[in-house]
Amino acid sequence: MTDKTIITCAINGNLTKLSQHPNLPITPQQIAKAALGAADAGAAIVHLHVRNLETAIGCMDLGLYEEMYHLIRSKNSDLIINLTTGEGGRFVPSEDDPQIAAKGSTLCSPERRVEHVKRLKPEICTLDFNTMWSGQAAVINSPRNVEIMADIIYAAGTKPEIELFDGGDLNMALNFLKKGIIKAPLMMQIVMGANYGAIANPQTLMYLVSQIPEDTVWAAFGIGRHEFPMVAQAYLLGGHVRVGMEDNLQISKGVLCKDNAQLVGKAKLIIENLGGTIASPTDARKILNLT
Fold this sequence. Notes:
Blueprint: E1 7-10, H1 28-41, E2 45-48, E3 50-51, E4 58-59, H2 62-75, E5 80-83, E6 90-91, H3 110-113, H4 115-120, E7 124-128, E8 132-134, E9 137-139, H5 143-155, E10 159-164, H6 167-179, E11 187-192, H7 202-211, E12 217-222, H8 227-236, E13 240-243, E14 250-252, E15 255-256, H9 260-273, H10 281-287
Parallel strand pairs: 1-2, 1-13, 2-5, 5-7, 7-10, 10-11, 11-12, 12-13
Antiparallel strand pairs: 3-4, 6-9, 8-9, 14-15
Helix pairs in contact: 1-2, 1-9, 8-9
């Protein structure tokens, strides 16, 4: 087990809907307020998406990213900001002709997907290694595109958080490490319980953890009802944890959370009850070699 455990809070994501939770953060002001609340509750890192202000759907608007980023920084200069690069990877095949993109497709150039990282230079951003089905969309992260994105991320001075959704993603990441495309020590986030991804159980997590390089700083999280069991499991296996309204909206079965801060507070309580200590942003920077 780690000396101190980093809690990341994934504030809003791109798939969670307002119809599922009336307090889902959508605007830059709402996202910033939620991020600051999560920090007060114990999160050292906040993982952030922006949303189209009219449709509330995840987007890649640079202006929204800049507004959100600077709102947080104006109130908290210590919190570690982790921006998504997952937007722009979805392809929905048309029913009439599967070669043609249908409504909901966002697939775009890899350069476009990391434009906000190049501009804002956050300390961390995600880098997805998965190609898989997500609802009616195929999420596509080709090796070529991931390499292009990695090069731009490193050039910005940002540390990529390698997102793993299953064993094949890990194989690709290890291949990239061997080629020098990504650099040790790695930061990895293991996603448990996504449909058609890694099964959210101890056996699957133990297998994946057993295959990553020894100097890797890793975390794991569970989708939906798996969120809090995976907090405990990740901690007990020596990893860090993630919670937040991107992944889960319930504080207990059938009960919506009040906000992201409440989810962070429950994760903190679980870790402390198991004998752990929560990492501050300063601690997290040392653990992640960001300083």
